Predict the structure.
Amino acid sequence: MLEAWGNHLTHARRRSPHTVRAYVATAARLLDHLGETDWARLATLESGALREQLAARRQAGIGNVSAARELSALKAFLGFAREQAGASHAAPPRLRAPRVKKGLPRPVTPDEAVNLAATVDEDASAPWIGARDRAVLLLLYGAGLRIAEALSLKGGDAPLGETLVVTGKGGKQRMVPILPIVRAGVEEYRARCPWPLDRDAPLFRGARGGALAQGMVQRAMARARGVLGLPASATPHALRHSFATHLLGAGADLRSLQDLLGHASLGSTQIYTKVDAATLLDVYRNAHPREGNS
């Protein structure tokens, strides 16, 4: 059953290898939970079984975002089971995805950033488009680029090295480090892209081969945050804010952060000290046993 599911994802759906691994692992956990089963039983599985499976995963320590992705994978697997059992007409189990508590705009967490990048890949209309959108989001979160900066890259900028010279607002240039996962994401997109990536042509292409528009990335992320139950504040630009906030929280100094972000003045960078302090306070309020009762 797992082999059939993996083959379907790989060949019929043309999902990326990391998506196939994640979805097959999710299906394997469900089958282990159910014990001996077949396609017919899976086709008529009710919401209670999924709820039990997700409860077990929550006890294992996954958060709301990962639980939402797990539910999405389970629903896809059960849809495939209904096809295998010849019961496509059967009603799918109804279960709401867990929601992240909404509040003031905040940076996405590292886990949310990774899940957003994976989800835009999984939900794209074509494998190369999924790889493209994932690569763009990795550049925003992994290198702190503005969306316009990422989309201004040319074919000649790739393959990316350990650093990248970026031209930002006002023509100001800066050098940013490129993490291995970001380089790999861009290379996966280049390998899948059906359009010739000439040196002076846009690196990121739209479905018809023209330059990729910002709106397409924004819509892809909007769909992904809907799947994951994230607030409307989880935009592409929020990934750049998260890049800055997480670096500051890890001990980066403001001057270095200013250079990485391409801010003209230190004052623009100092806002992240307030964001990071607010994030730490939120964690404290949620975790401290006495604070929650005050």
